[in-house]
């Protein structure tokens, strides 16, 4: 599904776009199946399978897992952890259904509408499965894959030399995302502001940088509610965040990023790949095994010290700023 010229204009004006009906149930089913298995495996490995596991729904199993062991989330996310000291045991989930999503024609058609026909998959990517906020302990609440997401701009998340890379965020809704469930929120037009906003260093890890709430309070915000199977597009400079999930159901999304090939990804220690190309079709990644291999090699290279993993150090100097305190 290509975007209409009206949709492209809306994206250019607002810095975000909600597009419903992109992935039908059949396209999302492999992800539901794969994650059902992964949650079982991780719960087994962490000793958290309960006696009544077989009678529990996916939602109940997932919630039980992360409520008791928020660190287990590392094995569900679709990136290696953002840690300088990654080890060979560090976890991630790079399954075939995730590769299927990253290369899904409907997703790439939308990316092509904004970026043109040469598309690289940027490795800044996450799965966010948010259980009811009330189930989470402090560590879970402070992790934006499970709890609320502080306000930020995606250009501030990558290393500084990639600040101007035209990276497009494609946020895919596996479940509905309503305001009560903590759908994303954004400040319309903020992508046109000249400079990046002030970001504070993450309180709970490298991935958790945030624009101080006092700065966001000056602007009106828009709820980016979307139905299951829809996507939300974000410009790299758009101010956005997400509230807590205040419902009894899970709120599940994947945030993917795509860009034209000639720009740095801003996270060079993790692998990018050519996802679509008219100029170099033979170089498009089509093998899930080759993709998995690249992530394994990245982990080995960082764990052995051959590659230095660096994330977001540039906001650390704001740690003493009263707005960040
Ligand atoms: O889904 C969320 O909570 C936040 C996602 C986000 O900030 C992003 O995709 O850049």
At a glance:
With 325 residues, this protein is an alpha+beta fold. It contains eight helices and ten strands.
Write the SSE topology.
Layout: H1 5-14, E1 16-19, H2 25-45, H3 58-68, H4 96-102, H5 105-115, E2 119-130, H6 138-141, E3 149-152, E4 168-173, E5 184-186, H7 213-216, E6 222-224, E7 231-234, E8 240-242, E9 251-259, E10 273-276, H8 288-303
Antiparallel strand pairs: 1-7, 2-9, 2-10, 3-8, 4-7, 4-9, 5-6, 5-8
Helix pairs in contact: 2-3, 2-4
The structure holds 2-oxoglutaric acid (AKG).
2-oxoglutaric acid binds next to strand 4, strand 8 and strand 9.
Account of the protein in words:
The relative contact order is 0.20. It is globular and about 55 Å long. The strands form 2 sheets. Strands 1-7-4-9-2-10 form a 6-stranded antiparallel beta sheet. Strands 3-8-5-6 form a 4-stranded antiparallel beta sheet, with no helix packed on it. It contains 8 helices and 10 strands. It has helices at residues 5-14, 25-45, 58-68, 96-102, 105-115, 138-141, 213-216, 288-303; strands at residues 16-19, 119-130, 149-152, 168-173, 184-186, 222-224, 231-234, 240-242, 251-259, 273-276. It has a single domain, classed as Jelly Rolls, CATH 2.60.120. The N and C termini lie far apart (45 Å). By secondary structure, it is an alpha+beta fold.
């Amino acid at each position: 599904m290509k975007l209409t010229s009206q949709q492209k204009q809306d994206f250019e004006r607002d810095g975000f776009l909600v597009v419903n009906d992109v992935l039908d149930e059949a396209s999302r089913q492999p992800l539901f199946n794969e994650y059902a298995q992964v949650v079982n495996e991780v719960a087994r490995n962490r000793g958290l399978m309960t006696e009544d596991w077989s009678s529990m729904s996916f939602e109940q199993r997932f919630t039980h897992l992360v409520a008791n062991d928020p660190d287990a989330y590392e094995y569900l996310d679709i990136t290696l952890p953002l840690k300088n000291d990654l080890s060979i045991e560090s976890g991630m989930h790079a399954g075939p259904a995730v590769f299927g999503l990253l290369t899904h024609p409907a997703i790439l058609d939308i990316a092509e509408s904004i970026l043109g026909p040469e598309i690289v998959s940027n490795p800044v990517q996450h799965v966010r499965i948010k259980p009811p906020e009330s189930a989470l302990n402090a560590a879970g609440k402070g992790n934006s894959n499970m709890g609320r997401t502080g306000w930020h701009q995606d250009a501030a998340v990558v290393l500084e030399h990639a600040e101007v890379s035209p990276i497009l965020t494609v946020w895919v809704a596996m479940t509905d995302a309503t305001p009560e469930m903590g759908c994303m929120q954004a400040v319309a037009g903020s992508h046109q502001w000249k400079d990046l906003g002030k970001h504070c260093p993450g309180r709970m890890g490298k991935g958790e940088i945030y624009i101080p709430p006092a700065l966001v309070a000056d602007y009106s915000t828009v709820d980016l509610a979307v139905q299951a199977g829809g996507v939300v597009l974000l410009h790299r400079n758009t101010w956005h965040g997400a509230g807590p999930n205040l419902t009894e159901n899970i709120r599940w999304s994947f945030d993917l990023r795509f860009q034209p090939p000639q720009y740095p990804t801003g996270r060079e220690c993790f692998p990018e790949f050519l996802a679509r190309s008219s100029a170099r079709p033979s170089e498009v990644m089509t093998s899930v095994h080759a993709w998995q291999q690249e992530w394994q090699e990245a982990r080995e290279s960082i764990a052995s010290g051959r590659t230095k993993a660096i994330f977001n150090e540039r906001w650390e100097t704001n740690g003493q700023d009263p707005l960040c305190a």
